[in-house]
Amino acid sequence: MASVLQNLSNYDEKSVPSGKGKKIGIAVAEWNKHITFSLLSGCTDTLTKFGVNEEDIEISIVPGTFELPYAAKQLYDKNMNAVICIGCVIKGETDHDVYINYSVANALQNLNIQYNIPFIFGVLTPNNEQQALDRAGGKHGNKGTEAAITALKMMQV
Ligand code: DLZ
Question: Whose CA is closest to atom 21 on ligand 1?
Fold first, then answer.
């Protein structure tokens, strides 16, 4: 997919709207936290770089990726302008990852359709840990950064 061809964190700074005055909720999963907390850092660094005040960022930590939609809805209820969901589900021996990934993607898409703020899918779905590391500050950039940029752009749509 695209990440093979490009660093996901390459973006044109001039095309990114300011986040000044915006309230951003971030739901982050503790599973694989060496990955997800690196994504979280990329995300918050990028939001503040583009004008979001630190005190306008509310972070909700949940046990696993499956719990992200619940936290996302709670953040919506606190009047956020956008909610970013961060997780990492590494493929295992069974199809457990498939059930989590599809259900979370569907749940977040439903939230997007139902409510009038953007819910951003910042969930890595790698086949192994190295692929996750590559996308959490490694050779393919930081997917948390990309999620932040997406939120900033979607708040303007
Ligand atoms: C159970 C589970 C497994 C096997 N793997 C992951 C994973 O790779 N990444 C992740 O975020 N969460 C995982 N979980 C936990 C589930 O997301 C969830 O927390 C539990 O099933 C409880 O609802």
Answer: 66
